[in-house]
């Protein structure tokens, strides 16, 4: 099939960007979206032009590198699917497709469709871990964890850190990303000692990074390629509130 | 190059590691902060090592080409991680995991290393659970297990089909914890382009900032490479697009021996190629073979839909050939059997390059719900890619390049032939011999990173007394200049062909001549064609853009330049090894029923290749392998 693409081109971090039109001819419906872009890039390079930069790596929907706002929708139209696993059979011959980078204040554009998501790492640094130095662990089966608990924790832990939630949110909030880690670690017994401190610190870091506040639009869970639910945000808010109310900012509240 | 010395400790195999840990020199806590370790790579091995070294008190600098350490390709490992916990009471033990791994590797690994790996496996699970890794649980709250190929016990721990993701996130979180504490400095979007060796010791690396293009030198007291495997030499593989051999290859050219480069693993259960535009192959976890049955039609060119082929006209060839392991035969064996079926014209799908992996019986036996719980996300992934629903029709699978057992040669301490250069995870050659068993890559990456390297690197640091060094040293400047020269050269050719077109051509050559089955004539052909292709690359490649910007074509060009050299060494190695073992199947050397035929009299050694200069043949060093605990025998999974 033949498509018309409108793609955001921007030479570098400070440079102005603009939408540029490209023809994508003879595209197979079995190609992935990124394979379609590969073909467009190969043709650009054959003409001596600079190819379109975009982040991608595993192409299996798990590394979280790929991004792309496709016709205004983060990761495109297929629910629960990252751009790398979106296939061209979702489009029809003659379609015009608009491709933009994630747009958020906290994700500055580096080039074309590539953005800097370093803010996510700094949110994890603020508390998205369990302090367990190598060599300290007890036997793994000593602490029992009910299957339902671990399944709920795993639902949240699946987050691939792609940033679609931020891009989809009208406020540019990172709440779904942060809440998925707060939920995962807050559900397992090993995560209890740092539970409230973690929520306080990670939420504070979101603000420092200039992510917007959450007003529960729910756009994030629609865009999430792992279908993580905004229930996690409720859990984060509850932990955060409890921590702030009980002993003031920075203090460690008692677990439930 | 120094003679190869594996430095395996003496004593009974069960006690070697404990004894060695006691005998190694220690660095006292106050002195640890005076040392800087340069860690390249942030996958399971790299992130776990960086975090642990920092916890111990060393200064760590961690370099990776992704925007975040969490994106390293370990993230994509699906099925699980082995550990000799024997929680199932099914006869597992450290010794059995050791035995299975040596046998699975077709007797081409170092016994002492494998034993240590099996010992360490137990601690890994404890460590990961303490970090909050959500391994699957039984209703009683205990950890669940599944089976994997090449084993008759259930010892694989898993987190749905995303075990690698959860383990990597565990290590990543520990790494970020140490970043916050100030022990680790991270360098995202930074690619190592060369190794700095001063007075025979690895002292630093030269990197390119992939956003600004800036070339810099970083110096330290030891360098660790955890940069993964080189499967992308085949262009199409299950590796991520960015996986490359540049770090290990350039270290090789600076003096690190490259061991067993021809040992590559072809994974039997991947989604078949669908067209010329294909950019990578997608793995379907081996765990699917717990419940899926592999078959092809008995009649050649049978174009009927699978559900119209009656039971009697199907050949469940793995169950037929290997009744005791059945569909869970090791990867090399299962892959070759699938290839054989397709070569005989029994393959399915449009191109005839596929076999069925059928869940029909399992769904009947266990119900939709159980199968969905076990493999839901894998089934969805399959459907997204192929537009077919595995609940209704069997999956079509075909083998694809997945893992490289070869890598930089390391001694028992994981140090390469360059003092100070340590290599961990898939980047080294150490533990899997000629074939890796499923769920063992995660185990090895984490064993190296959490437990082995943090212990052994102290011994090196305490016994070497490197002089102070700064970036104005002429040896440092020389390496920097080499890197800048190569970048300039790549950009100045302005030929007609794209980097990818060369990469695809190389990949096809490698797959045809150095893939699942190899023979002398084919390898000689490849050894003629690869240098020609390389010459054409340096004459006619077109790399657009400049060096002072984010330039993905330039990044790729450097990597493909290295693959064009490494591919040749793989063929040299495959040609010299006149036997079949594990993933290395030489058609000339097979038993009457088509199984790999080893030659232990002549080839029970590690082939470690030394780089001798551009255009010069590499020099072969042999590390003899002794099998004192697992008796050398032809592998049988019948």
What does the model show?
The complex is a heterodimer of chains A (256) and B (638). Chain A has a five-stranded mixed β-sheet. In chain A, strands 6-7 form a two-stranded antiparallel ribbon. Helix content of chain A is 34%, strand content 12%. In chain A, strand 1 (3-10) and strand 2 (17-24) form a beta hairpin. Chain A has two domains: 3-110, Ubiquitin-like (UB roll) (Roll), CATH 3.10.20; 117-247, Alpha-helical ferredoxin (Fumarate Reductase Iron-sulfur Protein, Chain B, domain 2), CATH 1.10.1060. Chain A is an alpha+beta fold. The termini of chain A are far apart. Chain A contains eight helices and seven strands; from the N terminus they run E-E-H-E-E-E-E-E-H-H-H-H-H-H-H. With 638 residues, chain B is α+β, with helices and mostly antiparallel strands. Chain B has a five-stranded parallel β-sheet with strand order 5-2-1-9-17. A five-stranded antiparallel β-sheet of chain B has the order 11-15-14-12-13. A four-stranded antiparallel β-sheet of chain B has the order 16-10-18-19. In chain B, strand 7 (201-209) and strand 8 (215-219) form a beta hairpin. In chain B, 37% of the residues lie in helices and 14% in strands. Chain B has three domains: 16-262 and 405-463, FAD/NAD(P)-binding domain; 267-401, Flavocytochrome C3, Chain A, domain 1 (Alpha-Beta Complex), CATH 3.90.700.10; 480-615, Up-down Bundle (Methane Monooxygenase Hydroxylase, Chain G, domain 1). The two termini of chain B are 44 Å apart. At the A-B interface, helix 1, helix 2 and helix 3 of A face helix 3, helix 5, helix 6, helix 10 and helix 11 of B.
């Amino acid at each position: 099939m033949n498509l018309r693409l409108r793609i955001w081109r921007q030479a570098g971090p400070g440079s102005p960007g603009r939408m540029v039109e490209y023809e994508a001819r003879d595209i197979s419906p079995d190609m992935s979206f990124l394979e379609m872009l590969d073909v467009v890039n190969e043709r650009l390079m054959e003409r001596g032009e600079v190819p379109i930069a975009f982040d991608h790596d595993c192409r299996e929907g798990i590394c979280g590198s790929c991004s792309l706002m496709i016709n205004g929708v983060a990761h495109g139209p297929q629910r629960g699917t990252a751009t790398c696993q979106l296939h061209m059979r979702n489009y029809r011959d003659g379609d015009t497709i608009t491709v933009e980078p994630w747009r958020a204040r906290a994700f500055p554009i580096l080039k074309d469709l590539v953005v800097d998501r370093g803010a996510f790492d700094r949110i994890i640094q603020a508390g998205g871990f369990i302090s367990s130095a190598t060599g300290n662990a007890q036997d793994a089966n000593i602490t029992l964890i009910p299957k339902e608990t671990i399944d709920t924790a795993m639902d949240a832990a699946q987050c691939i850190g792609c940033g679609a939630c931020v891009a989809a949110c009208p406020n540019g909030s990172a709440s779904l990303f942060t809440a998925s880690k707060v939920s995962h670690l807050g559900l397992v017994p090993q995560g209890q000692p740092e539970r409230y401190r973690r929520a306080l610190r990670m939420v504070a870091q979101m603000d420092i990074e200039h992510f917007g506040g959450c007003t529960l639009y729910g756009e994030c869970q629609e865009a999430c390629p792992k279908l993580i639910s905004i229930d996690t945000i409720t859990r984060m808010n509850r932990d955060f509130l409890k921590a702030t109310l009980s002993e003031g900012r920075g203090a460690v509240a008692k677990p439930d | 190059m120094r003679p190869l010395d594996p430095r395996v400790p003496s004593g009974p195999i069960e006690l070697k590691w404990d004894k060695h840990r006691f005998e190694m020199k220690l660095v006292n806590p106050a002195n640890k902060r005076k040392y800087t370790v340069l860690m390249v790579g942030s996958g399971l091995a790299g992130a776990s090592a960086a975090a642990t070294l920092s916890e111990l008190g060393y200064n760590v600098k961690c370099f990776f080409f992704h925007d975040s350490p969490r994106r390293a390709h370990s993230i994509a490992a699906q099925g699980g991680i082995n550990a000799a916990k024997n929680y199932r009471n099914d006869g597992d033990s450290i010794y059995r995991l050791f035995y299975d791994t040596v046998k699975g590797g077709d007797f081409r690994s170092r016994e002492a290393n494998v034993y240590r790996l099996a010992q360490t496996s137990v601690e890994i699970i404890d460590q990961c659970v303490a970090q909050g890794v959500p391994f699957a649980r039984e209703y009683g709250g205990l950890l669940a297990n599944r089976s994997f190929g090449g084993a008759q016990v259930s010892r694989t721990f898993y987190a749905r089909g995303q075990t690698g993701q959860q383990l990597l996130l565990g290590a990543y979180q520990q790494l970020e914890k140490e970043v916050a504490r100030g022990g680790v400095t991270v360098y995202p979007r930074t690619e190592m382009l060369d190794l700095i060796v001063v007075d025979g010791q690895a002292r630093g690396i030269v990197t390119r900032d992939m956003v600004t293009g800036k070339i810099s030198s970083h110096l330290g007291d030891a360098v660790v490479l955890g940069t993964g495997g080189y499967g992308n030499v085949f262009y199409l593989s299950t590796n991520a697009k960015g996986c490359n051999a540049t770090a290990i290859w350039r270290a090789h050219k600076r003096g690190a021996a490259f061991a067993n480069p021809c040992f590559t693993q072809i994974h039997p259960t991947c989604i078949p190629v669908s067209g010329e535009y294909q950019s990578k192959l997608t793995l379907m976890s081996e765990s699917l073979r717990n419940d899926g049955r592999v078959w092809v039609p008995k009649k050649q060119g049978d174009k009927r839909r699978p559900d119209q082929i009656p039971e009697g006209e199907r050949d469940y060839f793995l169950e037929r050939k290997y009744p005791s392991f059945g569909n869970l035969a090791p990867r090399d064996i299962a892959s070759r059997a699938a290839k054989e079926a397709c070569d005989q014209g029994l393959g399915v799908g449009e191109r005839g390059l596929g076999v069925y992996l059928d869940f029909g019986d399992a769904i009947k036996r266990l119900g939709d719900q159980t199968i969905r719980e076990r493999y839901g996300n894998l089934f969805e992934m399959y459907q997204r890619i192929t537009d077919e629903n595995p609940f209704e029709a069997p999956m079509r699978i075909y083998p694809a390049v997945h893992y490289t057992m070869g890598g930089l040669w390391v001694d028992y301490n994981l140090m390469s032939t360059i003092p100070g250069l340590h290599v961990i995870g898939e980047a080294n050659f150490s533990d899997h011999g000629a074939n890796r068993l499923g769920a063992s890559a995660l185990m090895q990456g984490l064993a190296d990173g959490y437990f082995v390297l943090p212990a052994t690197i102290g011994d090196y640091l305490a016994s070497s007394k490197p002089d102070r060094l700064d970036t104005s040293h002429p040896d440092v400047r020389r390496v920097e200049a080499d890197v800048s020269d190569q970048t300039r050269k790549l950009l100045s050719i302005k030929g007609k062909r794209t980097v990818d077109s060369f990469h695809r051509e190389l990949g096809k050559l490698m797959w045809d001549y150095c893939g699942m089955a190899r023979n002398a004539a084919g390898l000689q052909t490849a050894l003629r064609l690869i240098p020609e292709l390389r010459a054409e690359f340096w004459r006619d490649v077109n790399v657009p853009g400049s060096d002072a910007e984010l330039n993905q074509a330039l990044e790729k060009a450097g990597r493909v330049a290295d693959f064009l050299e490494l591919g040749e060494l793989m063929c040299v190695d495959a040609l010299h090894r006149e036997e079949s073992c594990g993933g290395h199947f030489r058609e000339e050397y097979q038993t009457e029923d088509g199984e790999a035929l080893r030659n232990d009299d002549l080839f029970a050694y590690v082939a470690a290749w030394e780089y001798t200069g551009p255009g010069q043949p590499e020099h072969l060093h042999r590390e003899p392998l002794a099998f004192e605990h697992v008796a050398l025998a032809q592998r049988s999974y019948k």
